[in-house]
Every structure is written in C-alpha cells, then in structure tokens.
Design a protein that fits this description.
About 30% of the residues lie in helices and about 30% in strands. The protein has about 180 residues and is of the alpha+beta class. The longest helix is centred in the middle third of the chain and has 33 residues.
Length: about 180
C-alpha cells in the first residue's frame, strides 16, 4: 500500500473535498496534479491559517450567489408563455414546440433564457394544452415555467368588455404571476 500525503485544498475539487479541507492523497497525485494546478498546498499550520480566511471569503461569496440563484428561480417560476400552432382535431400538433421555440417565447415575454437551458424531459411538445417545462438556472437549480400551446383553429379569447380582434399572431407571449 502506497504512502499517503496530507494536503490542504485551496479550491473545491470534485470527489475529493471543499476549500479548506485537509485530505490524504497519494504523493504522486498531489505532486503531479493538485499542486501544479494550485488546487492544493502542503498541510502546514501557516497554510491552514491562510486557507481558513480564504474559505470564509468563498463561503460569503457562495451565500450571495445562492441568493441570486434563488431570486432567478422565483422570477422564472411564475412565467407563463403562450404559442399558437397548427393542430388537428385530436389536439396533435402538425409540428412541435422545441427548446428553441420555448426560449424565443420567453425572450418575447421579457425574460431572456438560452435554448440550452430549456429542459424538455419528454421531448418536444406535440400536443395542444398546458405543459410544465423546466429551465436550468444554475448547477442543480431549476425553475418550472408553463407553456400553453393553443390550436390555431380554437376561437381566440377576447378580454372582458372588448370586442374580439381575431386570433393573436403565432409566438405570442404573456407573463402572468401564479396565484
């Protein structure tokens, strides 16, 4: 069995530890990978004091970032977007609503998201109705938005007290808070 070496992590290293942790690793791993990349230093008392200060600063930065992420999740969670597509009488779309279309609808609603962040777990939307779609915000944080797919043959809903002006254009987006 090889001898182990104790090192103090300067950064978070996946499957090894977080900043400030003292871990035992193989000497070659420490010497050839961790130390040249400045991910770890020798576990001396002086280095431990420096890393404790750095870990506290990183914890404060992470807490601020977590608040930003939570605010973004809450802001996106109330988003409702609507699109109108051609569909048959059974409610099946002739095309589909994919991640790019959902991202475009969200951008039209005033919330800019990228196509790569839209998670369509069951593939593109192919039926008329209300669908919940996950949007990746950061790491393991997701927001659920509502995408309403309407058929172009359905009668348009007019606001109360105003005459109907016809069917809205394809790709209409609206943002309403959930109650």
């Amino acid at each position: 069995m090889a001898r182990q070496m104790e090192v103090l992590l300067r950064e978070h290293v996946e499957n090894l530890g977080r900043c400030g942790d003292v871990v035992s690793v193989a000497p070659g791993y420490a010497r050839n990978y961790l130390m040249p990349r400045k991910l770890a230093v020798a576990a001396t008392e002086e280095n431990k004091k420096q890393i404790v200060r750095r870990a506290a600063r990183m914890a404060a930065e992470e807490a601020a970032r977590a608040e930003e992420i939570q605010a973004a999740v809450e802001r996106l969670s109330g988003l409702v977007v609507t699109t109108i597509c051609k569909a048959d009488e059974g409610g099946h779309l002739y095309g589909s609503v994919n991640a790019a279309a959902v991202a475009e609808l969200c951008t039209a609603a005033g919330t800019s998201i990228e196509e790569k962040d839209v998670r369509l777990d069951d593939g593109p939307l192919k039926t008329v109705g209300e669908h919940r779609v996950r949007v990746h915000v950061h790491a393991d944080h997701f927001a659920a938005i509502t995408v309403i797919v309407k058929s172009d043959s359905e009668p348009a809903e007019a606001p109360a007290g105003s005459p109907s002006e016809g069917t809205p254009a394809e790709g209409t987006a609206e943002q309403t808070p959930e109650s």
